[in-house]
Every structure is written in C-alpha cells, then in structure tokens.
Amino acid sequence: MSHPWLMDKRYAETLAQKKNESTAQLLFQTARRMNEYALAKVALQSDGPSPRASHMSLFPHIDLEGTRLTVLAQRLGISKQAVGQLVDDLEGMGFVERQPDPDDGRAKRICFSAKGRDAILQGLTVLGEVETELKDSIGERHMRNLHQALTKALAALESWGA
User: Fold this and answer.
1) pLDDT reported for residue 138
2) How far from chain centre, in Å, is Cα 146?
3) Can you give the pLDDT at residue 5?
4) CA geometry: angle at 81 spanning 79 and 85, to 5°?
5) C-alpha angle with apex 38: 33 to 40, nearest 5 degrees?
6) What is the pTM of this model?
7) pLDDT tens for residues 56-76?
8) Where are the alpha helices (DSSP H) in the chain?
C-alpha cells in the first residue's frame, strides 16, 4: 500500500508537468502576473484608493454606453449580488455611476464616470509601460511574435463563438 504523501507527491509532479506543457495554463499565469504587476504600478501612481483585481475584472465588461447589472453578472458568470458589491465599491471610489437606462425607465445602467474613463486611459498607459519592460526582457522579436499569435488566437476563438 502506498503512503498518501507519496501519492500526493506523484500527483503534484504530474500536475506541475501538465501545467508546464499547457500553453493555455502559461497564458493564464502570465496574464495574472501581468495584471498584478500593472495593478501595483497603478496603485503607486494613485493618490486615492485604487481598484483591486476583482474590480478590474469588471471593467472590460462595461460598455461605453453603460451596461445593466444583470448583463454584467451574466458576462462574468457570477451572481447579481457579487457584481452589485463590486459596482458599489467602484461607485464609492468614483470610477462608475448608475444612470437611468434610456430603454427602460425602471432599470439602471452602470457607466464609467469621468474619473473612470481617465482611469481606463491611465491603465492602458501602464499596460504599455509593462509591455515595454517585458519587451526589454524577452526581446522585440518575441514580443512582436507574441502579439501576432495572440491576435490570431483571439480571432479564432471569436470565430468559434467562444
């Protein structure tokens, strides 16, 4: 009979090997680390409270004309209550605001405030800085190839409806 710690060790080794072989897993890890690094840079530049990673996960899902809370919950795959808490936090920080939905007077849309729109541009500037640092580490050719590969991968996934 094998000891549980020995099975755990074998499992851990197999898991690490599978993760290292997976391009998608490497992409997830890279994206998470890049996001954490960019958020830390933003926090250093900010004079007030800055959004956390959970807040930032909401930003790409808010349309410029605003998005209903129920749609945000659906896009993120989380409960309306969880999205509501993130929106409450971001509203308290001044990044978003609730506005009447022009299509339904009873509903509200979550919209970026002027501060939120400025924060998006600042965030994209910081991402550009992070990309420059990464390019300096891995080389311009690798960075260009990475960008081209990711652009093609995104287009393929979008064509599949993913």
Assistant:
1) 97
2) 18
3) 62
4) 120
5) 95
6) 0.79
7) 999 999 999 999 999 999 999
8) 4-21, 23-45, 53-56, 69-76, 80-93, 114-138, 140-159
HEC assignment per residue over 85-121: HHHHHHHHHCCEEEEEECCEEEEEEEEECHHHHHHHH
Q: Which two tokens stand for residue 89?
A: 């936090």
In the Cβ-directed half-sphere of 18, how many Cα atoms lie within 13 Å? Answer: 6
Residue 98 and residue 111: Cα distance in Å, rounded?
6
State residue 26's pLDDT score: 93
What domains can be seen in the chain, in order of their start residue? 20-47+120-162 (no CATH), 51-112 (1.10.10.10)
Q: Rounded to an integer, what distance in angstroms lies between the CA atom of residue 137 and that of residue 98?
A: 42
How confident is the model at residue 74, as a pLDDT? Answer: 96
